UniProtKB/TrEMBL annotation:
This is Ankyrin. Keywords: ANK repeat, Repeat. It holds the Pfam family Ank_2. It comes from the Bacteria. PANTHER family: ANKYRIN REPEAT AND PROTEIN KINASE DOMAIN-CONTAINING PROTEIN, ANKYRIN REPEAT-CONTAINING PROTEIN-RELATED. The lineage of its organism: Bacteria, Pseudomonadati, Pseudomonadota, Gammaproteobacteria, Thiotrichales. ANK repeats lie at residues 76-108, 199-231. InterPro entries: Ankyrin_rpt (IPR002110), Ankyrin_rpt-contain_sf (IPR036770), Gal_Oxase/kelch_b-propeller (IPR011043), Kelch-typ_b-propeller (IPR015915). It comes from uncultured Thiotrichaceae bacterium.
Amino acid sequence: MIEEKNDLATALEAGDLQQVRQLLNEGANIHYSRDGGYDALIDAMFGRNIARDGHLIALVKLLIERGAALNGMSRYGETAIGVASRQGRFDVVRLLLDAGADGDYLSWTPIMYAIAFGSVDDVKRCLHDEVDAQFWWDAASRTPWLLSLQLGDITKAELLYENRKDADKSLFQSVINDKGRMLSWLISKGFDVNVADEYGHTPLMAACDNDAIECVKALLAAGVDVNKTGEYGDCAIKHVNDRRILCLLIDAGANSAEMEQEMRQLLLTGNVDDTLEIDNICYESGKHRRFGDKNPQSMKFPFWDAMIYSGAYASTARQKFHDTNISEKEEVYTSGNLSRYRNISGEEPVWSFRRFGQSLTHLPSGGFVTMGGEYEDWYDEDFCIYNDVIVFDGNGSFTIYGYPPTIFSPTDFHSATLVGDYIYIIGNLGYPEVREFSETPVYRLHCESFKIEKVKTKGENPGWIFKHNAHLNGDVISISAGEILKNNQSKSRKNHHIFLLNLRTMRWERKVMQP
């Protein structure tokens, strides 16, 4: 009987062993087949990262004991044993085979069985007996070489190394199940840590996708390019789901402005609920951006605190308090039923922490510092570029500091590099009226007093650069990539040079052309 998704299917995809057992005890139908041909055992392989699921074996054992079908296949050719194999859960593969699942779904040769379940001697015998043993692909498109990498057995992989096939996939295969030692061994063999697949994805992106923290550490230790982009402009930090990995990437120089807003919110506040809990009095008294009068000035507005904690859009706050009428605005964009307006009334925009081009710096104490950033774009009624500094303690609490714009100009798409007790803030897109095209703005923020000072530099600077990468090497900050505005041009040009700022002399040097 074909069914829609039921409570048992939902519990199986969640990997909720206790709930599955309770539902079965209450009479749930373990023999269901729902839309798409999915049955209980197949559903148990989806809905989460089963490579990290510590309860999967117990869950599969329960389903086997209760008589679940072992060899069901979805409309898309998915089987429980096939998915377990692809995800590197060879313990589950073994369990299913022992229970009577059909091994033909794996398309394994004897050497593949030896790699997954046998000894080193078994692998040696297969290499001796099987003709072209290493050039067979299984149902998961793996050769014996790639299978050994996903398994993480270096001794077996060494036997297959000389006649390896699909070498360009090697690093990717080792990160699926976070085989850090295997990855380090491959790197020692000369495999390129910055290799990209046909979509421009790198092993670091794959490691982030799979929450493979040991592999991330190995790649960072090998000098991987943390800001390399894929075919669609994504970089590794956009693939992060794990707070620990996010901190590792930021510390290694990843461009924090590229991280997803939801991940930023979880990292800084621990909150993913965007409900705005504030009353109208707090909204009216704190809804606008204010500059500090001191360097720094602690800014204490309950509305700002609520906006940080919720990560709400300015428009959400306006709608909540029915503050949607701006006295003077002009329509700048219309598409179907969507219209965009620019605020020309002179009224300050509603304050928001949900920003683009905001830097994030990880402090040795475990806290974080964010700076500036812009809300939406110039056509939005609440467009604003900020100059605040917000210090998070790493446990959800924070302090907001404001500054006079004459001390610290509203800044977005800059870089922020921690050097000892200071964070060096380089570059800016900013408002058009503050751009000085022969200058690269450089500030430094003291990490205890949070006082900001502008730093004078000399030498051949990048100009008005933004959206760039910054890396610290000794006493030198290296600036690469990004975009540069020149001579009041409305369109920026790509930066193809590397610029070095010597922090001892504060002198810029243009280095080499990037290929």
